[in-house]
UniProtKB/TrEMBL annotation:
Residues in NADP-dependent oxidoreductase domain copies: 28-324
Pfam families xrefs: Aldo_ket_red
Keywords from the UniProt entry: NADP, Oxidoreductase
Protein name: Aldo/keto reductase
Superkingdom assignment: Bacteria
Record-stated family: Belongs to the shaker potassium channel beta subunit family.
Gene3D superfamilies assigned to the protein according to its UniProt record, in alphabetical order: NADP-dependent oxidoreductase domain
Length: 333
């Protein structure tokens, strides 16, 4: 497939500054946690990446451990073979911190682990550098200076342009920022789990770190914030394919279905899908620069990208969403 990107790709996307840096992130970006492994339909993976780029999505999120540690292989092949002439228009990220090899150096935040992980990620993707490289989780047993200084060294060596953290509380994220700043390395983002049903970061200080922006992952609560589950769990859905999913299973879906239906009505009255409204809801929250979606089909990406150009959710609709979901969202870490 000879892919030629749409000439109107930048017309409807918004780009927001990340932290205190000069880097702009697309308001919606695409992640490869699911559906991008070597066991996935390769043509569908290509179509999803091409569709995303055609929608102005310039940022693609990977990690060492996604899709049983094979997402980097698939994504790398697609970027190298089909988008190399557009590499300068694209931000590709990866992360270190979760386990991808056996033994004591396969996870967490020691210098040994994060540097070896970054080098493996570069080898697997076949890329020369990552635009943004993340510490995937805070390591309580490694001095933060060790983790962040190791990643700063990698930036100085040209293996990454910017640093970021993920799943850090506000205080640790701010400290990571200060360490990187002392090395003149931009640490720009904290990537956090945040959506209408998961509001835990509102109480851990992540929204108060003025020097960092937020990238919000699982914005649709893995698909629950759509009309997909209103009549049960379809076989061809994430919950249908993976009944043991800890976040998305019959115990977490069924008690929330009535609330989802009511939110679909609000979304419909706004002329949009619930998925679009759930993304819009995040784009209006404090410090959010970009919303990180997942997808199993190209059409879902088109649907989600349209959230960016939709109208603001009014204060009264925001209140209705709070009332409808009261007692159904997680608040405490
Ligand atoms: N930093 C971290 O620790 C961390 C952790 C988790 C994820 N992430 C990142 O965040 C990304 C997104 O996470 P996520 O996949 O949980 O996000 P999500 O956007 O909440 O869920 C994505 C799933 O929702 C369904 N979906 C998407 N768009 C839809 C639409 N328009 N209408 C109906 N259903 C739709 C699809 O599921 P079906 O299969 O049912 O079609 C899709 O696979 C990941 O790929 C990863 O890059 C980071």
């Amino acid at each position: 497939m000879n892919y030629i990107p749409s000439s109107s790709r930048y017309d409807n996307m918004q780009y927001n500054y990340a932290g205190k840096s000069g880097l702009k992130l697309p308001a919606v970006q695409l992640g490869m946690w699911y559906n991008f492994g070597t066991d996935a339909d390769f043509e569908n993976c290509k179509k999803m990446i091409f569709t995303a780029f055609d929608c102005g999505i310039t940022m693609f999120d990977i990690a060492n451990n996604y899709c049983k540690s094979t997402a980097e292989i698939v994504a790398g092949e697609i970027f190298r073979k089909h988008l190399s002439s557009h590499r300068d228009e694209i931000l590709i990220t990866s992360k270190a911190g979760y386990k991808d090899i056996e033994g004591p150096y396969g996870e967490w935040g020691s210098k040994k682990s994060v540097i070896a992980s970054l080098d493996r990620s570069l080898r697997k993707t076949g890329l020369d550098y990552f635009d943004v490289f993340y510490s995937h989780r805070f390591d309580p047993n490694t001095p933060l200076e060790e983790t962040i200084n190791a990643l700063c060294d990698a930036v100085k060596q040209g293996k990454a342009l910017y640093l970021a953290v993920s799943n850090y509380d506000g205080k640790s994220a701010q400290k990571a920022f200060e360490i990187a700043k002392s090395r003149n390395v931009p640490l720009i983002v904290n990537q956090v789990r945040y959506n209408i049903f998961d509001r835990r970061i509102e109480s851990n200080g992540a929204q108060d770190t003025e020097d960092l922006s937020l990238v919000c992952y699982s914005p649709l609560e893995q698909g629950l914030l759509s009309n997909k589950y209103v009549n049960g769990i379809p076989e061809d859905s994430r919950a249908g394919r993976e009944p043991t999913n800890p976040w998305l299973n019959k115990e977490t879906i069924f008690p929330r279905v009535e609330a989802v239906k009511k939110m679909c009505e609000i979304a419909n009255s706004r002329g949009q899908s619930l998925s679009q409204m759930a993304i819009r809801w995040l784009l209006q929250r404090k410090r959010v620069a970009s919303v990180l979606i997942g997808a199993s089909k190209p059409e879902q990406i088109k649907d989600c990208a349209k959230a960016v150009s939709s109208s603001e959710i009014s204060e009264s609709d925001m209140q209705k969403i709070d009332e409808i979901t009261s007692g159904l969202y997680i608040e405490k870490m």
